Amino acid sequence: MNYTKSDALHKEALEHIVGGVNSPSRSYKAVGGGSPVAMEKGEGAYLYDVDGNRYIDYLAAYGPIITGHAHPHITEAIKQAAETGVLYGTPTAHEVKFAKMIKEAIPSLDKVRFVNSGTEAVMTTIRVARAYTGRDKILKFAGCYHGHSDLVLVAAGSGPSQLGMPDSAGVPQSIAKEVITVPFNDIEAFQIAMDTWGNEIAAVLAEPIVGNFGIVEPLPGFFDHVKEIAHQKGALLIFDEVITAFRFTYGSAQNIIGVTPDLTALGKIIGGGLPIGAYGGRKDIMEKVAPLGPAYQAGTMAGNPASMLSGIACLEVLQQPGVYERLDKLGAKLEAGILAAATKYNTPITVNRLKGALTIYFTNEKVVNYEQAEATDGELFAKFFKKMLHQGVNLAPSKYEAWFLTTAHTEEDIEETIIAVENAFKEL
Ligand code: PMP
What is the CATH code for 72-318? Predict the structure, then answer.
């Protein structure tokens, strides 16, 4: 494959855009460097780069593109938005229709509010939880990404029940000390942290099914305990469903694990590919938000007609019968092919899959928490990543990011991908 134009574009981008990318995860730093491939066109399950190379895409733009690129129904909705004015700064019928659709799919949401990104959605749930409880601290689980606001860019201290350290320059220590981080799926560490700080904690923030160090499901009963202990201490439970909502079922991961949070943050899929975030939850908590209550949150672009119409169209596609069964079937076929290739070539991998999302970890160990995901073989992954790219398969350049199937992928795409995986494993 020829990457002349991608290489040239990256060089030029480096002159003008910091690091040449508008989000650090797009750089190839974690896979040994090089120019990230610049895409020019998306169509169904495929992306085409500026040099004309075609890729079967499993990045799905880090999750939102579950219906494939340029889905006709969503494209039509975006055209309608373009033709009728993309922003009014007033209420619209679209946002009411969309709020009703989302509430119907996620019953724990009595009230919602639309914002522009997952970062904003999570950031605001924390503010609302603090306003409701009158407390400042939050507890989160190690390795779970919740956007780039100050409070959630905090890593664990050295023990299971220590206060956080800033995970980014520019995050004040005074903010980091309001954050407690414990390992995912470790109920004992959680209990210790809650015994120590529970009475100061406004909320426990969690992905109900982890999507950020690969696909990692909670151990049976984990979140039942988390919720019970949180509530005993007077803390709220916030689920960050930015990746998980509408991913595995028409609705949220909370519908799957059977644990209802007090507040939920949404993003990604619900925008059909346009910028969006949303948050919502119990009526008495949500009524703390302005203009009803004292917790302030606003947005010039919030609930904009284009994102609303695109989001409605996306959910309409996902409402069609058989969508999630098909994603599951294709996911199972892909997983089986990957595992068979690994056996054939003696490649040390573990696959975590739920429906149409999976992660290949380069390890023989089970992965149920961040420490284990972090300990997997990054060098082997980097080689694998490049070999897949050069065979026309686009993945995230990260050793524990998920592969996302879309409604546009076909059995043939999966078969082509399995052949590429076999070739890659053979050469590793
Ligand atoms: N929460 C989770 C679980 C996410 O995966 C992400 C983005 N990867 C965010 C929040 C932040 O969303 P955004 O990038 O739209 O700000």
Answer: 3.40.640.10
Which amino acid, 3? Y
Q: Which CATH number fits domain 4-70+322-427: 3.90.1150.10, 2.60.120.260, 3.40.50.150, 3.40.50.720?
A: 3.90.1150.10
On whether the CB atoms of residues 358 and 351 are closer than 8 A, the answer is yes
Q: Is the pLDDT score of 160 beyond 50?
A: no
| Atom from ligand 1 closest to the CA of residue 25 | 8
Q: CA separation (Å) from 387 to 48, 377, 383, 422? A: 17, 16, 6, 11
If one residue of 21, 120, 243 were mutated to test the ligand 1 pocket, choosing by the most ligand atoms within 8 A of its CB, it would be 243
Q: Domain residues of the chain, as ranges?
A: 4-70+322-427, 72-318
Whether 17 shows a pLDDT value over 80: the answer reads yes
Q: What is the pLDDT of residue 156?
A: 65
Q: Which residues form the catalytic set?
A: 145, 240, 268
